Structure prediction request, 231 residues.
Amino acid sequence: MPKLTLLLGRRTLQIYDIDQETIRVGREPGLDVVIDNPSVSRRHAELRKEGDGWVLEDLDSSNGTFLHGEKIEEPRTLEPGDEIGFGKFSLVFEKALGEATAPKSRSQPGMTMGEGTMHIKSHELSQLLEDSERQRRAHVIWESGGQRGTHYLSDEPVALLGRDALCDVRVPKAPKHHVLVVKRENGCEIRNLHWWTSMRVRGEKTKRALLRDGDVAEVGGLSVTFVDDLD
Prediction:
């Protein structure tokens, strides 16, 4: 059966095993997934089963519902691994086989549950928010040879990506020293060190470029996406 994992930043708060065909998410007590936070509307979003798949719809929420960082304007089909965003909170959708009739939940230690509502003590929430702020900093996402990884630039503002063991970020099926990324105040600079393969950024060939939030650099079979700090 499908499973929803509730996250605050990268911290898992709760896991729901879904066994009904409509799941409503919001701040209102009694909903299937309750997120008691002002950034979440009383009735924020709905996930429903349609045929063999699942669909996500925003319920005219105040702050919007996001799928992989993109605000949705109409119902969207969900795929396994999709991340649904509600402010600082997110739900990861994972599809499995089977069906049944009400979401069951498993809470993390130190948290209490009541009628599906998440209750967290104020000091615990403050700590979680602080942790999530540290974790959701500027980073690059690389994809190569069917594999994917993330490098946080707050940990290492200058990083070499490539196959060599001495690289800061090991990338399979890439040249030994492929690209260099450098965090700047206004974005992320990327330099192509692979002289016989060209790099493209925003559709143009270049040896070096300043990436803005969401920009993708492509070099051969490697793609690097820059995600800037969250406000």
The first strand starts at residue 3 and ends at 8. The two ends are 35 Å apart (CA to CA). Residues 122-135 form the longest helix (14 residues).
